[in-house]
Amino acid sequence: MLKSLDRRVILLVMMFTLVALVSNVAAAEDLAMYVKVLETNDDLATATANFEKAMTNSSYKIVGKWDMKSSSKDGFQQKARTYVINAPEYTDLIAKQAPASSMPAAVLKVNVYEAKGKVNINLVNPETTARVFLGEPAEIENKEALVKKAVEVKDNLINIIKGVNGKVAIEKIGPIRDGDDLDGYNGDGMAKAMTKWRNFKESLHANKEIAIDGDAAAAFNKACKELEANIKNNGLNWRLICSIDIGENARFYGITQPGTEVEAIEIDSMSRAKSDKNKFPGIDHAGAFPIPVLVYQDGDIIKVSQFGQMWRMELYFWDAGYGAFTSHMDMPGNIYDDVEKIINGEA
């Protein structure tokens, strides 16, 4: 029989163990939109070349890249190069186990950017986007298994980035939310009203619908060709960054526009700490782009859709604060109108 003192010691150990476990669970639920991985003294051209070289040893593929920059202040400007990456095995899982509206969960992004006199590399957190774009656990069978795979993908990307010359400096970059709030994410705080409390599915709007007359694949390919032509010929300075097939008759397009990028960087920089070498800290949110356009079959219809842009901006830029959103209320609507015009060949 254990002595009374021994019992008390065991109980105390058990209590401290339980507290530690609960603390670890809470920490695991605290998910950032972006994760900084590395910083280097190399310039942007060298760092991006090193990252692209590191990618060649991986099964992951770069499917799009482009250069971005902030506005200029007193002759100072910050630059970035953002990459869209496809992990084929992960993409196949999303395609097989989730609806077409969940396509953005499969799209990976890495951002190489200038800040604080160094070049930094971060990624859009695949675990965060998986929780958002796979919806409530009850909606998709094996959601937690898919999220677990997203964590593996995140770890793989981090290991690739660690292959770049520099110092590993893991850091969470906002918005940062409790993981439970990301399942069925419908906006943040008081700004939920701006998104009308809609989740990702409810925020996805079909700007164009094409009835399938016979061959679904032919109708899908025609819709894609029309969209690509509309993007190429638009007069609003939008450009195509990438396209990724994510399942049968389902394709993700990423488009962007320099003016929209500059404004988004400025909005996110408004309330953040700045320095002479980091006047535009919002450059670390460049991975919020490109903007998705989804083409997919839904029954007897091919849909060409975009997400509500206020919902999308809250997801990626909420750390800018409520005031930044209320002072730029026109921006999401302007983006939405541009994309809708492009989809319908009116731009």
From the spread of the alpha carbons, the general shape counts as: globular
CATH homology superfamily: TT1751-like domain
CATH architecture name:
2-Layer Sandwich
Lateral arrangement of strands in the main beta sheet: 2-3-4-5-1-6
Sheet-strand content, in percent, reads: 25-35%
Helix count from the secondary structure assignment = 11
Characterize the biggest β-sheet: 6 strands, antiparallel
Q: What structural class results from the helix and strand content?
A: alpha+beta
Q: What's the total number of strands?
A: 11
Describe this structure as you would to a colleague:
It comes from Selenihalanaerobacter shriftii. Keywords: Signal. Residues 1-28 form the signal peptide. This is DUF302 domain-containing protein. This protein is an alpha+beta fold and 347 residues long. The protein has one domain (30-343): TATA-Binding Protein (2-Layer Sandwich). It contains 11 helices and 11 strands. The chain has helices spanning 4-28, 44-55, 88-97, 126-133, 143-161, 179-182, 216-233, 258-269, 309-317, 322-326, 330-343; strands at 30-40, 61-69, 79-86, 108-115, 118-124, 167-178, 204-211, 239-245, 250-256, 291-298, 301-307. Strands 2-3-4-5-1-6 form a 6-stranded antiparallel sheet, with helices on both faces. A hairpin with a 2-residue loop joins β4 (108-115) and β5 (118-124). α4 (126-133) packs antiparallel against α5. The longest helix is centred in the first third of the chain and has 25 residues, at 4-28. It is globular. The model is unreliable at 9-14 and 16-28 (pLDDT under 50).
